[in-house]
Amino acid sequence: MKGCFFIGFYCIIIFMKYHIVVFGCQMNLSDAERIASVLESIKYKKTSNINEADLIVVTMCSVRQSAVDRVYGLDEKFRKLKDSNKQLITILTGCILKRDRKKMSEIFEYVLDIKNIKKLPQILKNQTNHISGDRLKYDTNYLDITPKYASKFSANVPIMTGCNNFCSYCVVPYTRDREISRPAEEIISEIKNLIKNGCKEIWLLGQNVNSYRDSKTNFPKLLKMINDIPGNFWIRFTSSHPKDFNDEVINVMAECKKVTPYLNLPVQSGDDKILRAMNRHYTVKDYKNKIKKLRKNIPDISLSTDIIVGFSGETKKQFENTAKLFREIKFDMAYINKYSPRAGTAAAKLKDNVSWDEKKRREKVLTEILKQTALEKNKKLVGKELLVLINENRGDDYFGKDEHYKTIKVK
Ligand code: 5AD
Ligand code: SF4
User: Fold this and answer.
1) Is 186 exposed, middle or buried (0-12, 13-18, 19+ CB in 10 A)?
2) CB of residue 169 inside a 6 A radius of ligand 1
3) Hey, whose CA ends up nearest to atom 5 of ligand 2?
4) Between 74-84 and 65-72, two packed helices, what is the crossing angle to 10 degrees?
5) Ligand nearest to the backbone CA of 161
6) Which helix (H) or strand (E) holds 72?
């Protein structure tokens, strides 16, 4: 609370306002909902206007350099805002690399590990003492904070965080540390509550959801337990890893009616040598076999993938193998990323020898294939009636997603 003062018989209470800037993935969006909840517990009020905030929290992403640069780009804006509001406090959290922390602390008052967000009230209370977020003891249980959900109908529910895989290009194991799974009872109780309050879509989140594990439960068992919760709702999950995406998960997906017929299974490359260099622990053949089994069990499944083009040493021929896989699998959607070397990762030691223009060219080639395969698949939907969960309204048009995670415009 900013202050409370009396004018005549009236007591005017002015609340501090917070604004959260979210960069990056669904996990960061979910973290932002927990940050909002902690701040509201100490009577901060949300503002969607950054210019009137007394506290700005940024949840950052470090997966690509462009994402890091966007945060550096806030420096000037913050300086201007601080000129007009001397009380303004800025906090950085999310996925932050150790090497960026020092520089970031020149822009932000506090650079806070995401696992420390329960300590926000203490930090804000003692701000004159300048407690460093880093020196506070971690509370790895930050996932048990009841979030302030951004939507009533679709909820992000983290089931695990961190990653043990160390794909050679990826910063996540360094920014989020090793895997921690939430207790199954806690997840089930959160979801039961959401369904009771009318939620229609549950997104199970984690860097590698397939390796979810608590004492008695693994990922497929957890899916079944959620599917057994009474109510009319959809279950979706992300991210999966082909090495952990096994027959048991496929069978459960086919069996559980609430699990939607949509899967994002990042392949990253269609070339075995590149996959080895990426430390992915599967071959193109393994990947294709999984897709084959999946399509046999769930014939109408829609598929998306993540790809990195122009990884260090990727030749034109090796890229062609990725393009070939793209033509063969016929994805419904793909997230195509141009390789961005990240300091501290194993791949950073390799020469980033594919030019930016060539990376752009490879991205374009895959985008063109994707346009064709996606169109081919979407044409099959012509004349069909679909159930759509609306999440946006622009003028007279409504937008949402169907079960297959296709964007639908409702006129
Ligand atoms: N460069 C480009 N893309 C990357 N990704 C992860 N690290 C990098 C990187 N260094 C992509 C992967 C991953 C997605 C979340 O981001 O495709 O699946
Ligand atoms: Fe990064 Fe690989 Fe872990 Fe995904 S599985 S978060 S790409 S290290």
Assistant:
1) middle
2) yes
3) 165
4) 20
5) 2
6) helix 65-72
How far apart are alpha carbons 60 and 108 in whole angstroms?
Answer: 12
* Residue-level pLDDT at 4: 57
Give yes or no for residue 401 CB within 6 A of ligand 1.
no
Going by CA atoms, what residue is nearest to atom 5 of ligand 1?
63
Percent of the chain topping pLDDT 70: 93
Q: Is the pTM of this model over 0.85?
A: yes
Tens digit of each residue's pLDDT (9 = 90 or more) over 236-260: 999 999 999 999 999 999 999 999 9
Residues 67 and 134 sit within 8 Å (Cβ to Cβ): no
Q: 154 near 185, Cβ under 8 Å?
A: no
Cβ-in-10-Å burial (0-12, 13-18, 19+) of 221 comes to middle
Is the shortest distance between the CB of 337 and ligand 1 below 6 Å?
yes
Q: Distance, CA 335 to ligand 2 centroid (Å)? A: 15
Q: What are the pocket residues of ligand 2 if the criterion is a CB atom closer than 6 Å to any ligand atom?
A: 163, 165-167, 170, 172-173, 207-208, 239, 241
pLDDT value at position 44? 96
- Among 377, 227, 246, 249, smallest CA distance to 302 is for 377
Task: Locate 2 and state its tokens.
Answer: 């900013």
319 alpha carbon to ligand 1 midpoint, in Å?
Answer: 16
Residue with tokens 């020469």: 351
C-beta neighbour count of 121 within 10 angstroms: 14
290: tokens are 């999984």
- The DSSP-derived string for 296-309 is HHSTT-EEEEEEEE
Closest to 71 (Cα-Cα) out of 80, 81, 59, 82: 59
CA triple 78-79-82, angle to 5 deg: 80
Q: How far is the CA of 170 from the centre of ligand 2 (A)?
A: 6
For 233, the token pair is 């709702």
- Taking the C-alpha atoms of residue 111 and residue 130, their distance in angstroms, rounded to an integer, is 11
Q: Strand 55-60 and strand 262-264: pairing?
A: unpaired
What's the rounded Cα separation, in Å, for the pair 204 and 181? Answer: 12
3-class DSSP state of 254: helix
Centre of ligand 2 from the C-alpha of residue 160, in Å: 13
Structure tokens given for 72:
């550096």
